[in-house]
Amino acid sequence: MGRALVTGGAGFLGSHLCDRLLAEGFDVVVMDNLITGSTDNIAHLIGNPKFRFIHYDVTEYLFLDGAVDFIFHLASPASPIDFPTRPIQILKVNALGTHKALGLARAKNATFFLASTSEVYGDPLVHPQVEEYLGNVNPIGIRGVYDEAKRFAESITMAYHRYHGLNTKIVRIFNTYGPRMRLSDGRVVPNFIGQALRGDEITVYGDGKQTRSFCYCTDLIDGFIKLVMSDQTGPINIGNPTERTMLEFAQQIKALTGSSSEIVFKPLLTPDDPKQRKPDITKAKSLLGWEPRVSLEQGLSETIAYFKTKLEA
Ligand code: UDP
Q1: Are residues 152 and 184 in the same domain?
Q2: Does residue 249 share a domain with residue 234?
Q3: Distance of CA 30 from the midpoint of ligand 1 (Å)
Q4: Is 146 a catalytic residue?
Protein backbone atom coordinates (compact mmCIF):
# COMPACT_ATOMS: atom_id res chain seq x y z
CA MET A 1 0.00 0.00 0.00
CA GLY A 2 2.98 2.32 0.47
CA ARG A 3 4.37 4.49 3.22
CA ALA A 4 2.51 7.26 5.03
CA LEU A 5 3.70 10.06 7.29
CA VAL A 6 1.15 11.22 9.87
CA THR A 7 1.98 14.53 11.56
CA GLY A 8 0.19 14.70 14.89
CA GLY A 9 -0.06 10.92 14.84
CA ALA A 10 0.08 10.63 18.64
CA GLY A 11 -3.06 12.73 18.97
CA PHE A 12 -6.68 11.64 19.25
CA LEU A 13 -7.51 11.49 15.53
CA GLY A 14 -3.93 10.91 14.39
CA SER A 15 -3.66 7.70 16.39
CA HIS A 16 -6.97 6.38 15.03
CA LEU A 17 -5.69 7.17 11.53
CA CYS A 18 -2.47 5.22 12.24
CA ASP A 19 -4.52 2.19 13.34
CA ARG A 20 -6.54 2.30 10.15
CA LEU A 21 -3.52 2.83 7.86
CA LEU A 22 -1.66 -0.11 9.45
CA ALA A 23 -4.80 -2.27 9.09
CA GLU A 24 -4.87 -1.32 5.39
CA GLY A 25 -1.24 -2.49 5.03
CA PHE A 26 0.62 0.84 5.02
CA ASP A 27 3.96 1.51 6.65
CA VAL A 28 3.37 4.42 9.02
CA VAL A 29 5.73 7.08 10.35
CA VAL A 30 4.45 9.48 13.02
CA MET A 31 5.93 12.88 13.79
CA ASP A 32 4.54 14.57 16.89
CA ASN A 33 5.97 17.00 19.46
CA LEU A 34 3.52 15.67 22.09
CA ILE A 35 2.26 19.07 23.25
CA THR A 36 -1.31 17.82 23.08
CA GLY A 37 -0.70 14.26 21.81
CA SER A 38 0.47 11.42 24.01
CA THR A 39 2.53 8.28 23.53
CA ASP A 40 -0.29 6.48 25.42
CA ASN A 41 -2.33 6.76 22.20
CA ILE A 42 0.29 4.86 20.17
CA ALA A 43 1.80 2.64 22.88
CA HIS A 44 0.06 -0.40 21.35
CA LEU A 45 1.88 0.24 18.04
CA ILE A 46 5.42 0.45 19.42
CA GLY A 47 7.34 -2.65 18.31
CA ASN A 48 5.28 -3.07 15.15
CA PRO A 49 7.94 -3.21 12.38
CA LYS A 50 5.62 -1.22 10.08
CA PHE A 51 5.36 1.63 12.59
CA ARG A 52 7.87 4.31 13.58
CA PHE A 53 7.49 7.25 15.97
CA ILE A 54 9.66 10.35 15.68
CA HIS A 55 9.40 12.94 18.47
CA TYR A 56 9.60 16.09 16.39
CA ASP A 57 8.17 19.57 15.95
CA VAL A 58 6.91 19.76 12.37
CA THR A 59 7.30 23.53 12.23
CA GLU A 60 11.04 22.78 11.82
CA TYR A 61 12.62 21.60 8.55
CA LEU A 62 11.30 18.10 7.76
CA PHE A 63 13.52 15.31 6.61
CA LEU A 64 12.63 11.67 6.13
CA ASP A 65 14.73 8.97 4.46
CA GLY A 66 13.22 6.77 1.76
CA ALA A 67 9.98 6.86 -0.16
CA VAL A 68 6.88 8.60 1.20
CA ASP A 69 3.63 8.10 -0.68
CA PHE A 70 1.18 9.97 1.54
CA ILE A 71 1.52 12.80 4.04
CA PHE A 72 -1.40 13.31 6.40
CA HIS A 73 -0.98 16.68 8.13
CA LEU A 74 -3.03 16.50 11.33
CA ALA A 75 -0.65 18.19 13.78
CA SER A 76 -2.36 21.04 15.63
CA PRO A 77 -3.87 21.75 19.01
CA ALA A 78 -7.63 21.83 18.30
CA SER A 79 -9.48 22.44 21.55
CA PRO A 80 -10.84 25.93 22.32
CA ILE A 81 -8.95 25.81 25.66
CA ASP A 82 -5.75 25.74 23.56
CA PHE A 83 -6.68 28.91 21.62
CA PRO A 84 -5.74 31.42 24.37
CA THR A 85 -2.98 29.24 25.89
CA ARG A 86 -1.11 28.09 22.76
CA PRO A 87 -1.96 30.74 20.14
CA ILE A 88 1.51 31.01 18.58
CA GLN A 89 2.03 27.24 18.40
CA ILE A 90 -1.36 26.87 16.66
CA LEU A 91 -0.49 29.57 14.12
CA LYS A 92 2.97 28.11 13.54
CA VAL A 93 1.97 24.49 13.05
CA ASN A 94 -0.77 25.39 10.59
CA ALA A 95 1.31 27.95 8.69
CA LEU A 96 4.98 26.92 8.96
CA GLY A 97 4.17 23.25 9.64
CA THR A 98 1.86 23.01 6.64
CA HIS A 99 4.53 24.66 4.48
CA LYS A 100 7.19 22.17 5.65
CA ALA A 101 4.87 19.19 5.16
CA LEU A 102 3.96 20.41 1.66
CA GLY A 103 7.67 20.83 0.87
CA LEU A 104 8.35 17.25 1.91
CA ALA A 105 5.35 16.05 -0.12
CA ARG A 106 6.73 17.84 -3.16
CA ALA A 107 10.23 16.43 -2.67
CA LYS A 108 8.82 12.89 -2.34
CA ASN A 109 6.03 13.34 -4.90
CA ALA A 110 3.62 12.23 -2.18
CA THR A 111 -0.12 12.87 -1.94
CA PHE A 112 -0.71 15.60 0.66
CA PHE A 113 -3.77 15.41 2.91
CA LEU A 114 -4.72 18.45 5.03
CA ALA A 115 -6.90 18.07 8.11
CA SER A 116 -8.83 21.32 7.95
CA THR A 117 -11.85 22.19 10.02
CA SER A 118 -15.43 23.43 10.11
CA GLU A 119 -13.90 26.40 11.97
CA VAL A 120 -13.02 27.86 8.56
CA TYR A 121 -16.75 28.72 8.44
CA GLY A 122 -16.39 30.68 11.73
CA ASP A 123 -19.72 31.58 13.33
CA PRO A 124 -21.65 30.52 10.22
CA LEU A 125 -24.50 32.51 8.71
CA VAL A 126 -25.35 29.64 6.34
CA HIS A 127 -26.84 26.50 7.88
CA PRO A 128 -26.09 23.65 7.38
CA GLN A 129 -22.60 24.53 6.12
CA VAL A 130 -21.85 23.75 2.49
CA GLU A 131 -18.28 23.73 1.16
CA GLU A 132 -19.01 26.80 -1.02
CA TYR A 133 -19.81 28.94 2.04
CA LEU A 134 -16.89 31.34 2.56
CA GLY A 135 -17.36 31.76 6.28
CA ASN A 136 -17.79 34.39 8.95
CA VAL A 137 -14.48 34.55 10.80
CA ASN A 138 -13.14 37.25 13.10
CA PRO A 139 -9.40 37.37 12.32
CA ILE A 140 -8.55 39.09 15.60
CA GLY A 141 -10.89 37.07 17.86
CA ILE A 142 -9.64 34.45 20.36
CA ARG A 143 -10.62 31.69 17.92
CA GLY A 144 -8.96 33.53 15.01
CA VAL A 145 -5.59 31.91 15.75
CA TYR A 146 -7.06 28.53 14.80
CA ASP A 147 -9.61 29.59 12.18
CA GLU A 148 -7.30 31.87 10.22
CA ALA A 149 -4.36 29.46 10.50
CA LYS A 150 -6.47 26.66 9.02
CA ARG A 151 -7.70 29.01 6.29
CA PHE A 152 -4.07 29.83 5.48
CA ALA A 153 -3.27 26.08 5.51
CA GLU A 154 -6.03 25.53 2.92
CA SER A 155 -4.69 28.41 0.80
CA ILE A 156 -1.11 27.18 0.73
CA THR A 157 -2.28 23.63 0.03
CA MET A 158 -4.24 24.85 -3.00
CA ALA A 159 -1.24 26.96 -4.08
CA TYR A 160 0.97 23.83 -4.11
CA HIS A 161 -1.75 22.00 -5.97
CA ARG A 162 -2.22 24.68 -8.62
CA TYR A 163 1.34 25.98 -8.93
CA HIS A 164 3.37 22.79 -8.39
CA GLY A 165 0.76 20.26 -9.57
CA LEU A 166 0.94 18.44 -6.21
CA ASN A 167 -1.78 15.87 -5.55
CA THR A 168 -3.61 17.36 -2.54
CA LYS A 169 -6.73 16.64 -0.50
CA ILE A 170 -8.47 18.91 2.00
CA VAL A 171 -10.99 17.59 4.50
CA ARG A 172 -13.04 19.91 6.72
CA ILE A 173 -13.56 18.06 9.98
CA PHE A 174 -16.66 18.77 12.05
CA ASN A 175 -16.86 18.01 15.80
CA THR A 176 -15.54 14.50 16.34
CA TYR A 177 -15.39 12.42 19.51
CA GLY A 178 -14.37 9.01 20.76
CA PRO A 179 -11.84 7.09 22.84
CA ARG A 180 -8.38 8.69 23.26
CA MET A 181 -9.69 12.22 23.67
CA ARG A 182 -7.98 13.68 26.72
CA LEU A 183 -10.18 13.84 29.81
CA SER A 184 -8.78 17.33 30.38
CA ASP A 185 -9.16 18.23 26.70
CA GLY A 186 -11.69 20.98 27.46
CA ARG A 187 -13.99 20.11 24.59
CA VAL A 188 -17.58 19.43 25.31
CA VAL A 189 -17.62 15.62 24.98
CA PRO A 190 -14.83 14.84 27.49
CA ASN A 191 -15.99 17.68 29.75
CA PHE A 192 -19.60 16.50 29.99
CA ILE A 193 -18.75 12.79 30.26
CA GLY A 194 -16.00 13.38 32.85
CA GLN A 195 -18.27 15.64 34.89
CA ALA A 196 -21.21 13.21 34.69
CA LEU A 197 -19.08 10.22 35.71
CA ARG A 198 -17.50 12.06 38.64
CA GLY A 199 -20.85 13.43 39.79
CA ASP A 200 -19.61 17.01 39.28
CA GLU A 201 -21.71 19.83 37.86
CA ILE A 202 -22.19 19.55 34.09
CA THR A 203 -21.09 22.93 32.72
CA VAL A 204 -23.19 24.27 29.85
CA TYR A 205 -21.55 27.41 28.47
CA GLY A 206 -23.74 30.37 27.51
CA ASP A 207 -27.47 29.72 27.21
CA GLY A 208 -26.92 26.18 25.89
CA LYS A 209 -28.89 26.95 22.71
CA GLN A 210 -25.80 26.77 20.49
CA THR A 211 -25.71 23.61 18.39
CA ARG A 212 -23.06 21.09 17.35
CA SER A 213 -23.21 17.83 15.37
CA PHE A 214 -20.96 15.01 16.57
CA CYS A 215 -19.21 12.39 14.45
CA TYR A 216 -17.68 9.20 15.87
CA CYS A 217 -13.92 8.91 15.26
CA THR A 218 -13.93 5.71 13.17
CA ASP A 219 -16.58 7.15 10.83
CA LEU A 220 -14.43 10.23 10.34
CA ILE A 221 -11.30 8.18 9.57
CA ASP A 222 -13.32 6.16 7.07
CA GLY A 223 -14.10 9.45 5.31
CA PHE A 224 -10.36 10.31 5.24
CA ILE A 225 -9.53 6.99 3.56
CA LYS A 226 -12.33 7.35 1.03
CA LEU A 227 -11.11 10.86 0.15
CA VAL A 228 -7.49 9.73 -0.19
CA MET A 229 -8.46 6.84 -2.44
CA SER A 230 -10.69 9.04 -4.62
CA ASP A 231 -9.75 11.44 -7.41
CA GLN A 232 -11.24 14.33 -5.42
CA THR A 233 -9.22 17.30 -4.15
CA GLY A 234 -11.84 18.80 -1.84
CA PRO A 235 -12.35 20.70 0.33
CA ILE A 236 -14.96 18.26 1.51
CA ASN A 237 -16.97 18.25 4.73
CA ILE A 238 -16.76 15.10 6.84
CA GLY A 239 -19.03 15.04 9.87
CA ASN A 240 -22.26 13.68 11.25
CA PRO A 241 -25.28 15.92 10.61
CA THR A 242 -27.13 14.79 13.78
CA GLU A 243 -27.50 18.19 15.48
CA ARG A 244 -28.08 18.92 19.19
CA THR A 245 -28.18 22.03 21.35
CA MET A 246 -25.56 21.90 24.09
CA LEU A 247 -28.32 21.80 26.72
CA GLU A 248 -29.93 18.78 25.01
CA PHE A 249 -26.49 17.21 24.76
CA ALA A 250 -25.84 17.69 28.50
CA GLN A 251 -29.19 16.04 29.25
CA GLN A 252 -28.35 13.14 26.91
CA ILE A 253 -24.95 12.55 28.56
CA LYS A 254 -26.56 12.71 31.99
CA ALA A 255 -29.13 10.09 30.96
CA LEU A 256 -26.60 7.79 29.22
CA THR A 257 -24.24 7.81 32.21
CA GLY A 258 -27.10 7.47 34.73
CA SER A 259 -25.55 10.44 36.52
CA SER A 260 -27.15 12.54 39.25
CA SER A 261 -24.97 15.55 38.32
CA GLU A 262 -26.64 18.93 38.21
CA ILE A 263 -26.61 20.83 34.90
CA VAL A 264 -25.35 24.42 35.46
CA PHE A 265 -24.78 27.39 33.15
CA LYS A 266 -21.35 29.07 32.89
CA PRO A 267 -20.11 31.97 30.74
CA LEU A 268 -18.94 31.19 27.20
CA LEU A 269 -15.20 30.44 26.97
CA THR A 270 -14.86 32.68 23.91
CA PRO A 271 -17.28 35.40 22.79
CA ASP A 272 -17.18 34.15 19.18
CA ASP A 273 -18.40 30.63 20.09
CA PRO A 274 -20.27 29.53 16.92
CA LYS A 275 -24.03 29.56 17.50
CA GLN A 276 -24.76 26.69 15.15
CA ARG A 277 -22.81 24.01 13.32
CA LYS A 278 -23.96 21.15 11.14
CA PRO A 279 -22.26 19.76 8.05
CA ASP A 280 -23.94 19.48 4.69
CA ILE A 281 -22.47 16.14 3.58
CA THR A 282 -24.04 15.95 0.12
CA LYS A 283 -20.57 16.04 -1.49
CA ALA A 284 -19.11 13.32 0.75
CA LYS A 285 -22.11 11.12 -0.05
CA SER A 286 -22.18 11.67 -3.78
CA LEU A 287 -18.46 12.03 -4.56
CA LEU A 288 -16.96 9.61 -2.02
CA GLY A 289 -19.85 7.28 -1.24
CA TRP A 290 -19.29 8.13 2.46
CA GLU A 291 -21.77 8.67 5.23
CA PRO A 292 -21.56 8.16 9.00
CA ARG A 293 -22.66 4.77 10.30
CA VAL A 294 -22.20 4.97 14.07
CA SER A 295 -25.20 6.50 15.87
CA LEU A 296 -24.62 9.11 18.58
CA GLU A 297 -25.94 6.70 21.23
CA GLN A 298 -23.60 3.90 20.10
CA GLY A 299 -20.54 6.18 19.83
CA LEU A 300 -21.23 7.84 23.16
CA SER A 301 -21.56 4.51 24.95
CA GLU A 302 -18.10 3.46 23.58
CA THR A 303 -16.68 6.80 24.67
CA ILE A 304 -18.27 6.66 28.13
CA ALA A 305 -16.80 3.14 28.62
CA TYR A 306 -13.36 4.50 27.65
CA PHE A 307 -13.54 7.45 30.05
CA LYS A 308 -14.69 5.12 32.85
CA THR A 309 -11.47 3.11 32.48
CA LYS A 310 -9.44 6.36 32.47
CA LEU A 311 -11.10 7.59 35.66
CA GLU A 312 -10.58 4.23 37.38
CA ALA A 313 -6.90 4.09 36.31
N1 UDP B 1 -19.31 23.67 25.82
C2 UDP B 1 -20.11 23.62 26.94
N3 UDP B 1 -19.59 23.12 28.09
C4 UDP B 1 -18.33 22.63 28.18
C5 UDP B 1 -17.51 22.66 27.03
C6 UDP B 1 -18.03 23.18 25.85
O7 UDP B 1 -21.29 24.04 26.90
O8 UDP B 1 -17.94 22.18 29.28
C9 UDP B 1 -19.88 24.21 24.57
C10 UDP B 1 -19.02 25.25 23.87
O11 UDP B 1 -19.32 26.54 24.38
C12 UDP B 1 -19.45 25.09 22.43
C13 UDP B 1 -19.78 23.60 22.32
O14 UDP B 1 -19.96 23.13 23.66
O15 UDP B 1 -20.61 25.83 22.15
C16 UDP B 1 -18.69 22.77 21.67
O17 UDP B 1 -17.49 23.11 22.29
P18 UDP B 1 -16.10 22.38 22.00
O19 UDP B 1 -15.11 22.98 22.95
O20 UDP B 1 -16.31 20.92 22.07
O21 UDP B 1 -15.67 22.71 20.52
P22 UDP B 1 -16.10 23.80 19.41
O23 UDP B 1 -17.14 23.15 18.61
O24 UDP B 1 -16.61 25.06 20.08
O25 UDP B 1 -14.84 24.05 18.69
Answers
A1: no
A2: no
A3: 29
A4: yes
Q: Are residues 72 and 199 in the same domain?
A: no
pLDDT in tens, 54-93: 999 999 999 999 999 999 999 999 999 999 999 999 999 9
Domain membership flag for residue 286: no
State the angle between helix axes of 188-198 and 296-312 in degrees (0 to 180), rounded to the nearest 10.
60
- What does the DSSP 8-state code read for residue 200? P
Q: What is the pTM of this model?
A: 0.97
246 within ligand 1 shell (Cβ under 6 A): yes
**For residue 272, which of 163, 124, 133 has the smallest C-alpha distance?**
124
Instruction: Give the structural domain span for 228.
Output: 3-176+216-238
Q: Is the CB of 118 under 6 A from ligand 1?
A: no
Checking 122-127 for CB contacts under 8 A at 24+ apart, the result is: 122/147, 122/272, 122/274, 123/272, 123/273, 123/274, 123/275, 124/274, 124/276, 124/277, 127/276, 127/278
Is residue 18 domain-shared with residue 154, that is, in the same domain? yes
